[in-house]
């Protein structure tokens, strides 16, 4: 008994006409997000006097060109024939990809009469592979003529197509002369003449949250029912192959009749054609031999990507699953290993060809043909500032407290550690990388090491930075080998060649590599990152491969002391137990101790319990404005576009501060209490921190205040290392403030003039940043003024040590 035949009630001709109408007449306004981002970047003048859009409107009214501006904005708001404009760009050779947004198609379908039940969106979602061809036919039918002279862009396809057209015209004229109607000129496959690739963008969740297809699926949730459909899968890319040309149309030439024969290729492997199928060879009963014409064939870029499901999508006791994704055309080179992405594509079975097709069973492999890629975290170069963030920044920039606001916005659920958060903010921004004329490279990335007792939130800070940074890699010292951090030589399973597989530092190129449990690494593995931290390259010479890889990354390391907790009875050198060659490569190194304190412990406990009760950080009055991680990322992206320079006056000030630091080190070495050595790398670290602070202000020039704050951070980190924890609990606030001002005097951080006077404004900023109050500072100044230790001038702007203290400090 024969199987019943079923004809699907699909009117492809009517749908094709509807798609032509859609491409020709669909109008839309410019995307609000795109226009807002463009205007935000163009109108961002943080250092100027413009603070809001209301003043822009007033300027437009008063300006003589106001009417022209209003006219341009009105023109920008006029609806545009979206897809005809795209097709015109393709005809003018300015574009190679057509992206059909299903949101637009759904809007167009709603405007159709109710009696035309074509179900365009549903058909595309359920049978996507077929409708890629249908939409391509519609695009070919309505493709406009070019409007620009493009003769200077003649490529191989232009030359070959012109020759083919001339040959077809000659053959047509010959057939008319011979009155031979049986012979027909060869017809080109439409894929051969198309200069574009067509892809679908799925329905966005905001546009249709009820649509099941609009939600991103985990790899293990992709079922057999999704075969042939357009689905969206969320995951992390683990392996990305090289971009290689994949043949789409093979062109053959017959040695007997000279005809061209075309063979569309839809699988990975194929059987080349050998016999000519033209009318002339068949009439003459001659088997002409076909020769492959590679130059006349059509190739498209092809890339294979492995996508692994996210860690939070894996059930308990299971291992992550992977999926193979095929990218063609403009979708290649958009993914890198480690990217978290949503990939919309067509879920298809892998067809068996050749000998495998004979032995194929009931099981088949599957893959996804990518249609649209959405990056979860964009790089700084691709991040645009939206209008809301712009207004929020302009509103608070004038207060001069953006540095404090952004620092408090980093991991706000973690209590305290304000100076550490400020240093991490500068690490995210980074300094300016210099490339000398002779090829010498001076790094601009900042390296920071956090060392301290267990339970002081070091790992949480590392994970937060890895999450905020557009390119962040988190790894642990014990779970990483030297090869895993740098690069490994592996054998490619496809080509059977020895290839380099980049490690964590290579994956974090132009990003941040967070290494936890830094002290647990083996010495042989730890030496692998010495070159990365200063030269920012990885030199490989193994298995016949000699090369140098880029690793332009910032290192953020966290380590515990040698004995688990900090032991105040031994020296800091014995506690930290890291080689000096490695420590000198860190620009800032903080020692975070867990010292009992009634007030501090009570505030910490209140903070932790509040976070557990409300799932958010407490809103304190002194915290100021808080920024979301997305807003912080946008601010940093804008700040990194500046390349501040150090003027001569600031350079002299920086040189004087460095000389005083070296002088203080010599004095400390004579007293045998020095730990962190001041080296020329320390000066470079101060320069990088100063440039990051200038970038934070959206400035192209470093000022003295930037250098003071950089020196303060370096001094704070050195004080935390040199403080052995003895007697600090018994000190009164007055004694602590005195020692703080004394250290500022010795380091020259707040020096004014030639006589060694201190600036009271900088003293007040430093003391208040340490957590002391204004009353405690005033009480300390009055107390030591009465004792004759220092004196304050009449207007209270400068402080100077007197007597033996001044001579000792000098």
The CATH superfamily of the largest domain is P-loop containing nucleotide triphosphate hydrolases
Are there runs of 5+ residues with pLDDT below 50, and where? 31-76, 181-185, 207-213, 724-730, 804-810
Give helix % range.
40-55%
Mean pLDDT: 77
Which strand order spans the largest sheet, edge to edge or round the barrel? 5-9-10-12-11
Large-scale geometry: elongated
Count of DSSP H/I helices: 31
Indicate the multimeric state.
single chain
CATH architecture of the largest domain: 3-Layer(aba) Sandwich
Gyration radius, rounded: 34 Å
SS strand fraction: 15-25%
Describe the fold and architecture.
The chain is α+β, with helices and mostly antiparallel strands and 810 residues long. It has three domains: 12-142, no CATH class; 216-375, Nucleic acid-binding proteins (OB fold (Dihydrolipoamide Acetyltransferase, E2P), Beta Barrel), CATH 2.40.50.140; 387-730, Rossmann fold (3-Layer(aba) Sandwich), CATH 3.40.50. The protein is 40% helix and 18% strand. It is built from 31 helices and 27 strands. The chain has a five-stranded mixed barrel with strand order 5-9-10-12-11. α3 packs across α4 (66-77). The protein is elongated. It starts with 11 loop residues before the first helix and ends with a helix. The model is unreliable at 31-76, 181-185, 207-213, 724-730 and 804-810 (pLDDT under 50). One of its GO terms (biological process) is premeiotic DNA replication. Residues 52-78 are annotated as: Disordered. Keywords: ATP-binding, Cell cycle, DNA replication, DNA-binding, Helicase, Hydrolase, Nucleotide-binding, Nucleus. This is DNA replication licensing factor MCM7. Pfam families: MCM, MCM_lid, MCM_N, MCM_OB, WHD_MCM7.
């Amino acid at each position: 008994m024969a199987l019943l035949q079923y004809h699907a009630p699909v009117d492809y001709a009517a749908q094709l006409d509807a798609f032509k109408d859609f491409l020709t007449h669909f109008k839309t306004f410019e995307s609000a997000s795109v226009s807002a981002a463009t205007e935000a970047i163009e109108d961002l003048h943080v250092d100027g006097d413009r603070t809001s859009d209301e003043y822009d409107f007033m300027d437009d009214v008063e300006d003589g060109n106001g009417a022209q501006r209003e006219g341009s904005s009105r023109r920008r708001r006029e609806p545009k024939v979206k897809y005809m404009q795209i097709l015109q760009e393709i005809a003018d050779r300015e574009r190679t990809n057509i992206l059909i947004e299903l949101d637009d198609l759904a809007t167009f379908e709603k405007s159709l009469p109710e009696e035309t039940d074509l179900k365009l969106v549903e058909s595309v979602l359920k049978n996507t592979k077929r409708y890629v061809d249908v939409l391509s036919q519609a695009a070919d039918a309505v493709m406009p003529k070019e409007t620009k002279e493009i003769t200077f862009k003649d490529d191989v396809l232009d030359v070959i197509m012109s020759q083919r057209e001339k040959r077809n015209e000659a053959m047509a004229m010959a057939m008319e002369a011979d009155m031979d109607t049986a012979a027909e000129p060869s017809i080109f496959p439409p894929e051969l003449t198309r200069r574009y690739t067509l892809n679908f963008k799925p329905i966005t969740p905001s546009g249709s949250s009820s649509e099941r297809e609009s939600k991103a699926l985990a790899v293990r949730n992709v079922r057999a029912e999704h075969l042939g459909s357009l689905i969206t899968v969320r995951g992390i890319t683990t392996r990305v192959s090289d971009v290689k040309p994949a043949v789409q149309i093979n062109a053959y030439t017959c040695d007997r009749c000279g005809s061209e024969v075309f063979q569309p290729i839809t699988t990975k492997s194929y059987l080349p054609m050998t016999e000519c199928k033209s009318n002339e060879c068949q009439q003459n009963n001659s088997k002409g031999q076909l020769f492959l014409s590679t130059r006349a064939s059509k190739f498209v870029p092809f890339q294979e990507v492995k996508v692994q499901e996210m860690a939070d999508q894996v059930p308990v006791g299971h291992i992550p699953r992977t999926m193979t994704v095929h990218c063609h055309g403009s979708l290649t080179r958009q993914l890198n290993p480690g990217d978290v992405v949503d990939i919309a594509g067509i879920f298809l079975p892998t067809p068996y060809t050749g000998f495998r097709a004979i032995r194929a069973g009931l099981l088949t492999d599957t893959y996804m043909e990518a249609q649209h890629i959405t990056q979860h975290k964009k790089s700084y170069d691709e991040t645009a500032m939206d209008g809301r963030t712009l207004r929020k920044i302009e509103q608070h920039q004038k207060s001069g407290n953006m540095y404090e606001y952004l620092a408090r916005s980093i991991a706000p659920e973690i209590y305290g550690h304000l100076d550490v958060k400020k240093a991490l903010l500068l690490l995210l921004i980074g300094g300016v990388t210099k490339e000398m004329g002779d090829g010498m490279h001076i790094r601009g990335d900042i390296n920071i090491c956090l060392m301290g007792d267990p339970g002081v939130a070091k790992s949480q800070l590392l994970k937060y930075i890895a999450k905020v940074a557009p390119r962040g890699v988190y790894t642990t010292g014990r779970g990483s080998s030297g090869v895993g951090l740098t690069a490994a030589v592996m054998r490619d399973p496809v080509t059977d060649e020895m290839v380099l597989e980049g490690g964590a530092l290579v994956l974090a190129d132009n990003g941040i590599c967070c290494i936890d449990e830094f002290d647990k690494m083996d010495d042989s593995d730890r030496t692998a990152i010495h070159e990365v931290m200063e030269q920012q390259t990885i030199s490989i010479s193994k298995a016949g491969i000699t090369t140098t890889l880029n690793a332009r990354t910032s290192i953020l390391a966290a380590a515990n002391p040698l004995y688990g907790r900090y032991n105040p009875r031994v020296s800091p050198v014995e506690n930290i137990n890291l080689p000096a060659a490695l420590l000198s490569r860190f620009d800032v190194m903080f020692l975070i101790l867990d010292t009992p304190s009634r007030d501090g412990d009570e505030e910490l406990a209140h903070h932790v319990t509040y976070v557990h009760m409300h799932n958010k950080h407490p809103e304190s009055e002194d915290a100021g404005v808080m920024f979301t991680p997305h807003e912080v990322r946008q601010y940093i992206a804008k700040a990194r576009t500046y390349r501040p320079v150090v003027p001569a006056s600031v350079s002299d000030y920086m040189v004087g501060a460095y000389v005083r630091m070296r002088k203080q080190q010599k004095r400390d070495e004579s007293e045998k209490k020095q730990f962190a050595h001041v080296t020329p790398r320390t000066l470079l670290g101060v320069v990088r921190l100063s440039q990051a602070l200038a970038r934070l202000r959206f400035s192209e020039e470093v000022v003295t205040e930037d250098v003071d704050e950089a020196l303060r951070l370096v001094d704070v980190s050195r004080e935390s290392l040199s403080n052995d924890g003895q007697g600090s609990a018994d000190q009164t606030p007055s004694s602590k403030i005195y020692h703080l001002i004394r250290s500022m005097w010795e380091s020259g951080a707040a020096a004014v003039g030639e006589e060694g006077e201190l600036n009271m404004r900088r003293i007040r900023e430093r003391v208040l940043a340490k957590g002391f109050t204004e009353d405690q500072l005033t009480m300390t100044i009055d107390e030591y003024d009465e004792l004759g230790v220092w004196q304050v001038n009449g207007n209270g702007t400068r402080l100077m040590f007197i007597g033996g203290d001044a001579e000792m400090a000098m």
